[in-house]
Amino acid sequence: MDAREPGDKQRALAQVVERVLAAFHPQSGTILDELVISLTPQAVKSACQLARDDPELAFDYLRCLSVVDLGNTLQVVYHLYSTRHRHKMVIKVALPPGERRISSVTPLWPGADWHEREAYDLFGVTFEGHPKLKPLLLWEGFPGHPLLKSYPVSGLEEVPG
Amino acid sequence: MIGRLDTVDMMVNMGPQHPSTHGVFRMVLTVDGERIVAAEPVIGYLHRGVEKLCENLTYRQIVPLFDRMDYLADYNNELGLALALEKLMGIQPPRRAEFIRVILCELTRITSHMMFYGSFGSDAGVTTPFIYAFRQREEVQQVLESVSGVRMMPNYIRVGGLREDVPADFSERLSKLLPKLRQGIEECDDLLTRNEIMLARSAGLAAISGKEAIAYGLSGPNLRASGVAEDIRRTQPYSIYPELEFDVPLGQNGDIWDRYCIRLEEMRQSVKIVEQCLEKMPDGPTMAEMPKALRPPPGEVYVCAENPRGDFGVYLVSQGGDKPYRLKVRAPSFCNLMVLERLLKGCYVADCVLVLGSLDIVLGEVDR
Amino acid sequence: MNWVVELVLRVVAVLAFLVLTVLFLIWLERKVLGRIQMRMGPMRTAPYGVLQPVADALKLMTKEGLRPQGADTWVYHLGPVVAVLPALLVWVTIPFTGSLVVQDMRLGAFYIVAVSGVSVVGMVMAGWSSNNKYALLGAARSAAQMISYELPLVLALLGVVMLAQSLSLGDIVAQQSPWPYLLLQPLGFALFLVAGLAELARNPFDIYHADTEIVGGPFVEYSGIRWALFFMAEYVNLFAICALASLLFLGGWKGPLLPPILWFLVKTYAFVFFIIWLRAALPRLRIDQLMTLAWRYLVPLAFANILLNAFYLYFELPAWTLSLASLALLGVAVVPLYRHWSGRAVVKARLADRVGMSKAESQA
Asked: CA of B78 to nearest chain C CA: how many angstroms apart?
């Protein structure tokens, strides 16, 4: 079974992250064995660039980019992994209430492309700087953003029959 | 006297209905003669809103939904979900259950790669490998059917262990099957791997470097074909994989042929893993003590497992209820498919089918 | 008027034979493919599925013949006809035995080459008139392929004609005693087989009607009886190429013990079986690889073959020198081709050398 407490490696990583990303005032914590840092939306692009390029961090692999609807705010969650050092980190960015724009990390990790398009499609979050932001999964002209909590699971319109 | 001929790029649609797009998948190709200038994949034809549905179903009810995502690796999907919940709730499944889970997942890996092998040959124009592969696959499917009762969508691997124990003749049946499977894999290898036409069609094509593969978020055999040593069973081990001996094949060029060879070799390694598990499997219960209603504590967890197609990630956010608050599935085929545009630039139209086949996607998990 | 009646009777006999052969070939292909793939092939329509081709033919004849809107009507309807007629016309001069032939023309080989070239027009007509991008791509590919492979085919044929000093097929067979031309012309034989396969658009050269890519190629908009005509053209051509191969290189109907017609059929069906076997076993080549094969390998080899024959005839060398030279040239040619196709991979990609990740190495 996976560890439920951060190991030595993760603790060492936490210290490196405090130091390298100090300029962005990250608030770090741990959830189970994951190191989680929170950033402001404005800091995302530069912090992620630093996370990718700094040799001690070397987060070259974006595993997952998700959006969580926390009721009145949206939270963008980045799961990062380094193939060189084999450590992982979670970056959480809480968007201000009513705000749905954040910079895109696709220029840094091309593998974020479709994750961001999916978030745009299903949550309505606009990623500035994305090369080709258009809906991915839903049909053209689909009204609304289904994965928001305000969207009912049975759909906005009655299905006939 | 012949000046420059002005030509117009033609748009060819490899539509959602096509014999070789491995599901409902559309590629809009801009073609200059026989060369592809641009390729735009269009997905979403199989989108069923699984993530939204999961937010409204209890944890035990979402297992069938996970079956239907990557429908060729159903046991592996269920394992991903079980691992996520077990980590969040702090549950340790019994040893016997862990061993059986690994056996089933590795057998599913074999069936999935056999399917890849068959359809890869068929994409290249030869139908015989399909039949050879399915002969082996059928034997494995019958063993899997004896375990869970169905050939697909088993709903068998649950949080805390398994739905029920395997039948009494499982070990014996499997030990008889494995040597035949080994031989079958060698036959398949003989038929296609060193065929000169196959090599001409696939060696050196659609190559991607390790660095680019990492940047694009590739995983599984696609990433390992480019020489990147990443296998979740080794780098972030789960279940009982740390106790098992197996090799992880790595490629050198990251081309179509490497991806194909790696999957073939992975099949052999899976057979090895299953043999070890059969030897070491203890007796005992197959389900831990579980509460009647699953209510994980508030929190979140991200686990990943090595599916046949790559890194299957489950991001689960729980707010204490009996339904997930947010369940995001990081589907490997979804992430692998992003690289298609990059790979297809400059290829021939005839190659695009092989390139798509070599990525080995399943539309169920691309679209969810 | 007797000769008119006799001619008509012969023509009718050949046509009847061809129709029966096509039916038989459909059955044979499905059975042989099935057996190679470890399955049984058709078994339900009559014992061992012998009526399967009849069932297929009936089905095709009763299907609705759809015509896409925007298709060029006359060209669309004439396409299959133009594709089938040359296939049938070729059989006018192919001798089954010394006496069983419709008309053994003095210009037999020339006639065959000239007539069979027309079938390309039929394919292109079909692809163009269908008003469909896939069909257009398929037509373009098929035209390129067939025209390219005409050259090695004709040159290989020419090599045999040079040795026999006659264009008449009956004479060519007569000249093949005591040794069939296969022994004198292994290179020519290989060229003829490969070029013939490509002319027929059979695996590994069936790119232009590849189901998995271009969904039928030029025939994608055809259904019913018109599609059946294309199908029939393919099988009649297949039988024609196999018959020609056995006539030109294996000595046709000559052989001890068995009656000549039986020898002819045995040799022809040996080739048919080989071609079906290739279909089961080989992937298909891409169009550019196909063209490279034709122009960079087969055409120069074909010319070299002609040169060899010329030397042999002019200097009146003993027969074994020709066999040896031909075989040597074939061997020499195969090596760079093999390298070109698989050299990059075979050297680097021996599975035994794959880097594996040991347990220690991977734990971070």
From this structure: 26
